[in-house]
Structures are given as structure tokens and as C-alpha cells.
Amino acid sequence: MTKILGISGSLRRQSYNTALLKAAQKLVGPDVELEIVTLHGIPLYDGDAEAAEGVPAAVVDLQARIAACDGLLLVTPEYNNSMPGVFKNALDWATRPPGISEKVFRNRPVAVIGTSPGGFGTILAQNSWLPVLRALGTRQWFGGRLMVSQAGKVFDENGEMVDEAIRAQLKSFMQGFVDFTKTA
Question: What is the model's pLDDT at position 120?
């Protein structure tokens, strides 16, 4: 069984990116488990708080989930032409304390997808993740890109994907990424 960990980079209850992640979960094969996590409960990084209290339990849980997966799927919104601060903050926390990053991220297969209400998808957010993922030593999958634009037309009011062409693209993307995770 291949285990993929999908992280939604949005905190909104009705997040299009969480909806995209849930759609991906429905499209993976029976030999794949796609676990969905959000960033809820992860505080802003504060070195003083870390020194006084250690790494928060929500972060330790996220680190363990990343370390246990065969592949990491980052589902990113795009805010002001870049990744959301809360998403970057979570991955920054996941590298604490020093030295844990090797266990959590080194050579971990990673893919990035996202959706936005605008017309350009999340191309700039996805591009802004590249230097971060390189610094973490991940193995990035470049076999496909998925930047869903006009999210309000792709998902209905319940967060269900209604665009069959995007569904087919997402299914193909996920199969390619799952295959990539098996080449480790």
C-alpha cells in the first residue's frame, strides 16, 4: 500500500484547496491511501516559545505523519503571488528542532498542486515552493503540473468537483505522482 500525505494549505472551512485534496483522495487507486491533514493547531513559529516549551504537539504529529508517508502532496492556495504564510510557517516548524529535517524531508517525494478562484491557477505559489523544497532536500516530482483556475466553476457549493476535464487531469496527475513515489 502506498501512503500519500496530503496537506491543505488553507484554513478555510470551505477551502477550494481542501476540496481539491478531497477530490484527489477519491481518485487514487485501491492500493493507495491518501491521508488529508490541515494546518489547524499549528502556532506561528516563535524561537523563544520553542526554547521555553519545545515543539508543539501539533507539529510533532505533522512531522511523524510526513516521516511515515511514501509521498507528500502539498495543495497550495496562492496569496499575493506566493504561497500562504500559514503553509510556509507549518513547514518551517516541521524542521524544528535542528536535525529533524533529515528524517522528515530528506529524499521525500513531493508534488505541489493548487486551485484558485482567479484565472491563473496557482502557478506563482507553486513556483515559490521550489526553493523551499530544494532546501529541505525533497525529491520533487516534475512529471506533471496541476494549477486549477476558476475554482468556483470547478467545484459546487458543497465542495464537490463538477468539472470532468479537471477530474481526469487530477486522476492522471495522482497516478503519475504515485508511480514516482515507488521509484525511491
Answer: 86
